[in-house]
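How a chain folds remains the central question behind the approach discussed here. For one protein, we set the task of working out the structure tokens from the amino acid sequence alone. The sequence in question and its structure tokens are set out directly beneath this paragraph.

_____
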Amino acid sequence: MPVQSIAELIRFARHNSPFYRELYTHLSDHVTRLTDLPVVPQADFWRANAPRDNRLLTAPLNEAVVFRSGGTTGSPKFSYYTRTEWREFTAAFGAGLVSAGLRPGHRVADLFYAGDLYASFSFVLDSLHRSPVANVRLPIGGATPWESTAATLEEFRVQVVAGTPTTLCSLAERLAGAHRTLPDVELLFFGGECLFGDQLPLLRAAFPNAEPRSLGYASVDAGLLGKAVPGGDPRVHRAFTPYTVVEILCDETDEAVAGNGVAGRLVVTDLRRRLMPVLRYPAGDRAEWVDRDAGVFRILGRAEEGVRVGPVSLYTEDVHDVVTAADLRGEVTGVQLVVRRRDGRDGLVLRLAVADPGKVSAALEESVVAAVLAERPFYASATASGHVNPIGVEWVRHQDLAVNSRSGKLIRVVDERPHT
């Protein structure tokens, strides 16, 4: 399907989708600019997109592939693609894999998760299949026992391993624990979540000749977002022009950010999807322009990923940065925020992954807690006032961190409070 003009896409969505017709009811009949449209309210969008009595789709659900999204937290959400839309989606992303470093003849292991309507395994496999360069595809999956995965990687001398950072780190931890390395691996294609600097030593221990790179930026609900940009910062991506339009908007006003280096929320419009239109849809991430004119932007982390502990708000990216700065020897390979309730009060537990939990020094634990309290002094005052419990630390191996059972992604916030 060719790229639609913005005016045609708006007209089509208003005419065929009850949700968009209601959302745009106050607009004139001849809207031609995206900036004239409101940003999609996500809660209303997903309420309209129920499997039964759907008010978002533009046609009856007679031909489509269905995927579940938004499964890490909250209720499940479903995304729909016609076969043409899915083919075009994966072909465009497959072309972007060349920017990420895919070369002719590369042997690629797909370690993403499959099943339960989850998209990433099929998406990566289909993108490799439709990539413009020849490649050998090994559909291993993320739930295969690590010994079997390692054996396949060794037997085929796999050069590219694709998976979430959590999956890659878990495999690396197993390999390092068995004193094994996979020197044939050249690239670690990661996606689905951010890769942090504190994870690199673990990856280097198991894959000594591999360079971690983003395989690209996409989601099953928002669609194409950005292709990888070669360079030192894997968070930097280039918009998939002309297939999608990426905007970065101010949090307070929904106006476009002033220029490069200004943080805002990332909003996307897909110019080829028609069954489930995506018009000014919040992708769920914060970003900043690196080169606005060239469509190059840097992902800054999830927009909504945080937690409230009593009266104190904490954001996972902030806590992660503080822990990394306090961990001078680079011992921590994973961070998880756990919220528990005891004695009538909420409390934060930092679940930190290291190579050997039994050998962590008390000094490191004290340093980490002190750094978090220095960054968020309100937590200390709330503790002194008896509103929250003191920060605790739980040392674990990387494989013991809680992950999403379907996707294998690290769950950044684990809320263990009773909700009754």
Q: What stands out?
A: The two ends are 49 Å apart (CA to CA). The chain has two domains: 1-303, 306-416. Residues 83-100 form the longest helix (18 residues).
